[in-house]
Specification:
about 575 residues, alpha/beta, 17 helices, about 15% strand, globular
């Protein structure tokens, strides 16, 4: 009897293990394939950042893509395996063969998937770079907080438009692009008629270094003069209420100079830590997707692409700029487009489908180029334009998986830029070797401000005749140094005190205002980065850790979430759900 029970138990364990290995093999294989195809140019710096950054605001299309490409397939395989094992329960050898096939196949699938991720992300090189320290930041960083920056008596307004994934590469070869066809004719004309800092004698732009190859990395580089680097074992940014508080950025510089600042985007500003960064550094008013809902511009529940379309973005921007310009204070109005985001972008009813029958992404790029140019024309017709500098800048190179795959190996891809109505003329705007970090001091200079030494952060004022770090050190050397570990960035990350700090005993709550950890008290926190809405109530035990489940506090019982720790219900007389 005992032997039969052991045999039966062993059989059940074998079947469960077989089903588990089969399920995990499919899930991990499809997840790896989905990740590497969705983020075709993913690197470790970006992966580490997004593993630590807030997930709120992620496109529903991306989430649905994962569900349909990975989760549903894996669950279907799980269901099939369960059914097959039930059918074969009396066929010992077939059951054994299927079980071994699941275990071996699952192991091979997981191993192959992890190997593919390891090699594609060049994790060996990343680990090697993290074993070496670079002093490039200590050697070259210029702190904007202490730099001498002199603004003109009459300060100029700034309109800065980040163009999602926009490259000069998209132009035709005649103008300096990589294609026979010009996908950005309107933007090409704007750049050729105004200031375009270029890596060639034609249309060109900036290179992207490590830590600047995704949207938040690109925005960070162009406003701080630094790559966005956090340690792999650093603080989880989803739990932080600050973003490098000791850092001085474009927003900080302009705020001290008396600028009112706004950031308009058609997506959720919380995604990737954007809200924390721009609110903390410059007190920007965030005019995002949820702002549009609150203002009644779009109905509650409306959702297209990453929030709402660029066509609406430009319409709303016109209204806001008209109102903002009525004030006598200078303003910085920053925008971020989204139509050209991966994969293949978002097409609207204004896109030219007749011309681009078989090239959806090319069509979206051309459409975005035209929409941006039309918006710039509107700006030029406004009274405030006379005292306003307009900057158009690609945030990073495209993440689309195949649009640039046939470009010649000797072509150097670069982000797009054009500066309109600048009060000063650059010494040399062509044949420059520079990175998106150089846009930081260049932006301030474009407002007519004088920067002593012409450097801020690791960026160089491109209007000046001073060499950029890419020119002084060589781009490859600069990028290699930035990919290495840095005590400068380690200390920068260490200065950030997260609200929730994980420990062996659970989660501790840091009270920033009092520079202490909570103990034996209630705390309130809005965990909007954690996919929850509104302020939540937590209790921190006398040992300094967040409590969960049913807890007796004083003479009353409270029920807290077992996963997140926030209060669900209470108080009660007993630890059983009842009517209060």
């Amino acid at each position: 009897m005992i032997r039969q029970k052991i045999r039966r138990c062993g059989k059940v364990m074998f079947i469960m293990l077989s089903v588990l290995f089969g399920f995990l093999g499919v899930l991990i294989f499809t997840s790896a394939r989905w990740m590497l195809s969705t983020w075709a140019h993913l690197d470790m710096e970006e992966l580490i950042y997004h593993l630590n950054a807030p997930l709120e605001g992620t496109s529903k299309d991306v989430i649905m893509s994962y569900i349909t490409s990975c989760a549903l397939i894996s669950l279907a395989i799980l269901a099939i395996l369960i059914v097959v094992f039930v059918v074969l329960r009396r066929r010992k050898w077939m059951e054994l063969i299927l079980g071994l096939a699941c275990i071996v196949g699952g192991t091979v699938s997981v191993g192959y998937s992890l190997y593919t991720i390891w090699t594609t992300l060049e994790i060996d090189d990343y680990l090697d770079s993290q074993s070496q320290y670079s002093t490039i930041a200590e050697d070259y960083y210029v702190d904007p907080a202490t730099a001498v920056i002199t603004f003109p008596e009459q300060k100029r307004n700034l309109i800065y438009i980040y163009l999602e994934s926009m490259e000069s590469t998209y132009s035709d070869k005649t103008h300096g692009g990589a294609y026979d066809h010009n996908f950005i004719p309107a933007l090409t004309e704007l750049a050729m008629d105004n200031i375009n800092f270029s890596n060639s004698d034609l249309l060109g732009g900036a290179y992207c270094t490590t830590g600047t190859t995704w949207t938040m990395g690109g925005l960070f580089a162009q406003t701080s003069g630094l790559p966005l680097k956090i340690a792999a074992n650093g603080n989880e940014m989803a739990y932080q209420d600050s973003f490098f508080p000791e850092l001085d950025t474009l927003g900080d510089v302009l705020e001290r100079a008396g600028y009112r600042q706004y950031f308009m985007m058609g997506s959720d500003a919380s995604f990737g830590g954007r809200r924390n960064y721009f609110v903390e550094h410059g007190n920007y008013e965030m005019l995002d997707y949820y702002w549009a809902i609150d203002e009644g511009l779009i109905p509650d529940g409306y959702y297209e692409w990453w929030g709402y379309e660029d066509a609406k973005l430009f319409d709303y921007a016109k209204t806001q700029l008209t109102e903002i310009a009525q004030s006598e204070e200078p303003f910085n109005f920053t925008m971020l487009t989204v139509a050209t985001h991966f994969e293949d972008g978002y097409s609207c009813d204004q896109c030219d489908r007749e011309q681009y029958v078989d090239d959806h992404y090319g069509m979206v790029i051309d459409c975005s180029s035209s929409r941006v140019a039309e918006f710039v024309q509107w700006i030029q017709q406004q009274d405030f334009y006379e005292n306003t500098t307009v900057i158009l800048s690609g945030d990073h190179l495209t993440m689309d998986s195949d649009f640039c795959e046939n470009i010649a190996d000797d072509y150097h891809r670069s982000t797009y830029n054009a500066i309109l109505n600048s009060p000063i003329t650059p010494v040399n705007e062509k044949n420059r070797e520079f990175t998106t970090m150089d846009m930081f001091p260049t932006t301030i200079a474009s407002l007519g401000a004088v920067i002593e030494g012409d450097r801020l952060g690791l960026g160089t004022n491109l209007y000046s005749d001073r060499q950029t770090l890419a020119e002084e050190l060589g781009y490859d050397t600069l990028n290699t140094e930035l990919s290495r570990r840095s005590r400068f960035f380690d200390e920068l990350s260490a200065e950030v005190k997260p609200v929730w700090v994980g420990g062996e005993g659970g989660q501790k709550y840091y009270v920033r205002e009092e520079e202490r950890y909570a103990a034996g008290e209630w705390v309130r926190y809005d965990p909007h980065q954690l996919w929850a809405d509104g302020e939540q109530l937590y209790f921190i035990g006398s040992d300094g850790y967040m409590v969960k489940g049913w807890q007796k506090i004083g003479e009353e019982w409270f029920h807290f979430s077992e996963s997140e720790g926030h209060l669900i219900e209470g108080p009660f007389d007993d630890p059983i759900k009842s009517d209060p």
